[in-house]
Every structure is written in structure tokens, then in C-alpha cells.
Amino acid sequence: MFSFAKKLVDRFEGGSPQDSLNGDSYFKNCLQFNNRGYGLRVVKVAPHSAAHQAGLESWFDYIVKINNHELPMTNPYVSNVQYSINEDGSINYGGQVTSEQAGAVNFDIINQEIATLAARNQPLVLDVWNAKGGLIRQVSLPLESSGMSSTGVTLQSQHLNTATYVWRILATHQGSPAFHSGMVPFSDYIIGCDSTYNDDVNGKGLLTAGGEALLSRTVSNYYNYHFSRTSNDNIPITFYVYNHDYDILRPVTVNLNRSWGHGHNRGILGCDVGYGLLHRLPEVVGKFKAESIVDDVLFDSKQSLEYQPNDGSTFMSPPPPTSEKTSTYSTAPPPLGAPHVDQSGSSSFVPPPPSARKKTRHTVASKASDIDSYMDEETEKSSKLDGHPTTVDDAKVIPPPPKA
Description:
Elements: H1 2-12, H2 17-22, H3 34-37, E1 38-45, H4 50-53, E2 61-66, E3 69-70, E4 84-85, E5 91-92, H5 99-102, H6 107-119, E6 124-130, E7 136-141, E8 153-159, E9 167-172, H7 177-181, E10 188-195, H8 214-230, E11 235-243, E12 248-256, E13 271-274, E14 293-295, H9 367-386, H10 392-395
Antiparallel strand pairs: 1-2, 1-8, 2-3, 2-6, 4-5, 6-7, 7-14, 9-10, 9-13, 10-11, 11-12
């Protein structure tokens, strides 16, 4: 519903869906390069690796620049192709190019750059866009050998719009499967889903796409499929839930069933969710070091937060304390217009000099004379319009001018 309203507003404003996406501050200026919004998404970070020590986060981080250079796209001409966002969040290029072609990155050039830096004993500097609030920070990775694998990170080229595939928990109904699983309203976000059955070969990565209706459709299909196999009303499913208050990602197992409540439209999951612009992952303030942040929505990372006295301040410092005891209560102000008396007892009140401007006397004609003059003037105008002379002199014919 929200996506429909957004498209309707864009149409009335005369803009395209791509124009509204380019003006989204959540993505900063990342939609202006890398074929308009692609990045290397961090899908796995090896423990105790250089990427792990540098603070790279799987799923949330996207590498958008390497050593202050854009990513080497295999098909850079795609940046000139117009695209739109489908209801499921996928990129639609109108049949001119596929998403795989648009997001293809030349990893050979990246590995060559890493080998050159490793030979010079220089670190790898990355500009990383984070899905939590959409801020950009710089990460420096020390290189021990050539190749991106030496940093302990696994990457996959994806569009930054995939970071919006989140469903926010707004409410859990009493006694529902979501309620018993411990989901926290307004703080928990569902970002992924897997099957709990080992023999379910198609049950991995069930929420890799987006769309407002994808979660309910996936849960319903998953329940119907396994209920037809087991005839059991309790169907377990695993959600990957991110909690913003504690900044943690945890797996949550929910036993889906239809018998948890009474009445119609109670749902299998038993919770209300939000999706779209108003339910994106918010920023975790203070998570990253201020000097590493390149671009932030909430704060300017380059501004100094320390207090610095201003020499040109208009506030005066208080006078030094005196030995005499003074009352802490100020005296009431004198009444308006009262003379000020100093300590000597003489009045310093000086009356203002008289104004040199004289009042001009305005003569007002009587109402009767004004009415009579007005009536005479109107009578004369009416007579001229009717063609009747008002005086004898007007009736005489004016003689022609004398001849020379």
C-alpha cells in the first residue's frame, strides 16, 4: 500500500521512480556510481581475520569504493540505462539488460590492486556503506598476501536496495507463535528466514527477495507445504531477527500453527509487521568511531563536539565578589515616568523639551454643504448627458473664428 502511494505521488510530481530513489538520503550518493547503486555486500566474515578485527559486518555492510576508486564494473555502459524498482524490490531494466549483467564486477582488477598494495606493504582502504542508518565509513585492512580472500571476507555484488528487505515487528498478539517466540515489537526486524528441516533442500534463503507481501506469502507457503507432509499443526521455522536496542542478530524459532487463537484472520505467525520507507534499519549512534565516518545523516563527523570559548561572546562575566554584604534580591524597578534619584538626593530627571512642530488645524466642511455641492454637480452632469443646456449662455451658438 505504501509503495502504491509513493508511486502515485511521484507521478503527480512528474518524476520517475528512479528519480525518487536517487534523491533518497538513505543511500547518500552511492546511486550515482557503480552502475547506479551496486556494491560488494559482505556475506561472511571469518573469525579473528583482518576483516573481523576491522569491524566489517556480514549482511549489513556494502563496499562501494576501493582506495577512493569506484568498483571496476564489467559492463559500465549500464550506468546509462534507466531502471525502476519492482514490487518485490528487484531492479527492472526494461529488458535491455539483466541484473546479473548490471552488477557484474571485475574481480581480476581488484585482486591485481590488492597484490600491488601487498607488495608495497600498504593497507587496503575501503569505503563501506552500512544498512543501519545508511552511513558511510572508511575501513583500513592490512594485507598479508594478494587476493581479497586473505582479508577473511566473502563478498557478493548486490544493489544497495536489497538492504531494505526488512520487516519490522510492530505488535505480537497474545498467545500467538510470535508472542511465545519472544519477538520484541518496534525493536526487532526480520531480515532472513530458513527452514528447520534438514531434508528441505529449497528451504534456505527464503527471504532473499523483497516486497511488502513476501513475508506473509513465504510463511503461508512454507506452512502449507510441511503441513501436507506431516499433518502436524506445529511447523517450526527459523527467522533471523535483528534487534536495534542491543544491536544483535539472533536466530528465532517460531512454531507456526493455526490453532493458537479464536476468530478469523488471526494469521499463522500472529504479529503485525511494517515494511518500506518508514521501517528501515535505523542508525546505531556511537557504534563506529567518529573519525572513520565519511557521511552520516544524523551528525557531521568532522565537527568538534568539545566546548570552545568564544572571544566575541556578548555575554559578560559576572563581577568579582565584594567584601560588603549585598542583598540577593534585586530592588523593584521604579514606576514608569518616575524621576531617578541618585545617592546625593538631587533629581536627575529632566523634562523633555516641547515639540517644535505645531499642530495643523483641519477645517471640516459641514455635512449639509457637502451634500448640496454633490447634488449640484450630479445635476449638471446629467443635463450634459441629456443634451439640455443648463444656462442661457450654453444655448447660444458659438460663432466661427474670424477669417484672416
